[in-house]
Amino acid sequence: MELKQINDLREIQFKIEELTHAYVQCIDDNRLEEWPEFFTGDCLYQIISRENHERDFPASIIYCDSKGMLKDRVTAHRQANIFEAHVYRHIVSSIRIAGYENDTYTVHSNYAVFQTRVNGYSEVYNVGQYIDKIIFIEDEPKFKEKKVVYDTLVIPTLLVTPI
């Protein structure tokens, strides 16, 4: 492999990692109105149990198949849902390009989300894997598909904030 190709791959990997880190920082900073902008217009965002994902069952906690649905999710979060105030902190690791086909990168990474409530106590909220399909639009990576495949058996509170 030529040095230029290696450098191109490193740049792609860097941009994908930056997309992932900016995505979780947006959620952690409670800038949810910006969250849909990480996605393409005809995207898929799904939060699904590992068991359902492995068995190819479609049942999900959250399923949005367009940027418009993501925006509606944020509006519901801000105006309609009633929930205890909390703060998320994400840790993301092992961001790895697992494949490339038809101008789309398949990217896998692990995540852990900690939640701190108003009482000041922090706990592990959710743990799992992101399985992403990422495309580049004018040299900027966007999520075409983001599957949040969670390992956590019990989600202790209403899941209203994206993971």
List the defining traits of the structure above:
163 residues, alpha+beta, Nuclear Transport Factor 2, Chain: A, 6-stranded mixed beta sheet, 27% helix
pLDDT below 50 for ≥5 consecutive residues: which ranges?
none
Helix content: 25-40%
How far do the termini sit from each other?
37 Å
Let me know the average pLDDT. Answer: 91
Instruction: State Rg.
Output: 16 Å
**What string gives the helices and strands in order?**
HEHEHEEEE
What is the CATH C-level name? Alpha Beta
Strand adjacency order, main sheet: 2-1-6-5-4-3
Protein name: Anthranilate 1,2-dioxygenase
Family: Belongs to the bacterial ring-hydroxylating dioxygenase beta subunit family.
GO molecular function: dioxygenase activity
Keywords: Dioxygenase, Oxidoreductase
